[in-house]
Write a structure and sequence with these properties.
Layout: E1 4-11, H1 15-23, E2 30-32, H2 41-44, H3 77-90, E3 97-98, E4 101-108, H4 112-115, E5 130-136, E6 142-152, E7 178-181, H5 182-185, H6 190-197, E8 202-205, H7 209-221, E9 230-234, E10 240-241, E11 245-246, E12 249-250, H8 252-255, H9 258-261, H10 270-279, H11 281-298, H12 312-317, E13 322-323, H13 328-333, E14 337-341, E15 346-349, E16 352-355, E17 360-362, E18 365-368, H14 374-381, E19 411-413, H15 422-437, H16 446-463, H17 476-487, H18 497-502
Parallel strand pairs: 1-2, 1-6, 2-3, 6-19, 7-18, 8-9, 8-18, 9-14, 10-13
Antiparallel strand pairs: 4-5, 5-6, 11-12, 15-16, 16-17
Helix pairs in contact: 1-15, 15-17
Length: 514
Amino acid sequence: MAVQSKKIGIIGGGISGIAAAKQLSKFEPVVFEATDSIGGVWKHCSYRSTKLQTPRCDYEFSDFPWTQRDNTSFPSYQEILDYLYSYATYFDVLKFVKFNSKVVEIRYIGDSESAARAEYGSLLPDRPVWEVGVQTTQSETIQWYAFEFVVICTGKYGDIPAIPKFPQNKGPEIFKGKVVHTIDYCKLNEEESTQLLKGKKVVIFGYKKSAIDLAVECAEANQGPEGEACTMVVRTLHWTVPHYSVWGLPFYMFYSTRASQYLHERPNQGFLRTLLCHMLSPMRSAVSKIIESYLTWKLPLEKYGLKPDHPFEEDYASCQMAILPENFFSEADKGKIAIKRSTSKWWFWEGGVQFEDGSRLDADVVVLATGFDGKQKLKAIIPDPFRSLLEFPSGMMPLYRGTINPLIPNMAFVGYIESVSNLHTAEIRCKWLSRLVDNQFRLPSVDKMLEQTMKEMEIMRRTTRFYKRSCISTFSINHSDEICKEMGWSSWRKKSWIAEAFSPYNSQDYEEEK
């Protein structure tokens, strides 16, 4: 079968992939989506109760506002999918998408000089650089496509579950009950999920958003005297938030304005700014303690042993702040959700799970809310020698502007850096990428790009012990400033200096400049 040649290929049809397709539409890209639907994790990794963790106005495209953007309720996953479909339809993006088309292999066909260059030229060199092998659900035959530039948008979540390793003969195979990962649970309809949980002794490993939401669904399925309690095994504590208000003040005042982020480190800030940042560290700590005091007062964290030892700022700086469902602690008070704190190793026995200290939990169902292995997804398709260049020894991906790996030619990665609003983070980088591909500006040298990524990684490392997640929440405005400057835009986007300093930034501030 002949190789089909195009300028740009995009792998993944989630939020990032659709944003990339819209911004690169003048090049008529080909978008490969492995399933029959756009939406990514919102389509394939959502429970029936899954909701957005931010208000609508903080999760929208700059040129496509929500119809009810002032509605303060958090939209459901279905509302987000409807919004994404409306966006893709309005901008005629779906014509670029090849559904049920899974990328199984990528080959490098560029020259060795391009792979080892110190300077970047045009990202569209008028000759193919990558070949992409695609398998459809209708055929086992691999169809090959050739591209000058490839954008990877497969994301960090979904597809490949992160499964704990167990001692020999102490894994799920000896357990007489059922073991599922949250990715399996997401595939169940309401009747199937209720049947899985109702009247069962359920043990959930995890304490992030997916685990918390699942515990509530489990509790709701076990109402009444016949219902069993769901036990959450919490290994690493994180701060949870009931809503976006702290002591009556809007949450954005603490971290999402230019003034509030001025307290935090940022790349390229110079000696005086570094000195000032050091002097302001007590104020930074005070902000974190104000939020911690509110959460400890508002929620029964100490009662259930769920108050973290680390500052709130560390969870915010690593994008691990989770919004609690309204009835989480009320179900715990009724005895429908039990908490077991354990940092020890654990394994299965035929009747449940056992911990290193000898304690056991009886179980009919064990749910692993243990996350995903997004990097393994990349390593499965990226060829050598580039596979070894995907991440540094620290485990972090070196991405200039959160998009370009300086060591991998003619390829971009969108959706691998996080902030409070991942949609905005993806969209502005896609705008930057479209102008870069269109030769409106040029990339710095490879050495300078690596130097910039190292500076950002070092800030993350100093800010939070969970730095490997590549989160820019505490300096997101500065990150956008630098992107705007490279695009030739003004970095200050508000109409007055007061608004510039004290009002929150969101995607609407980054509408196209005419």
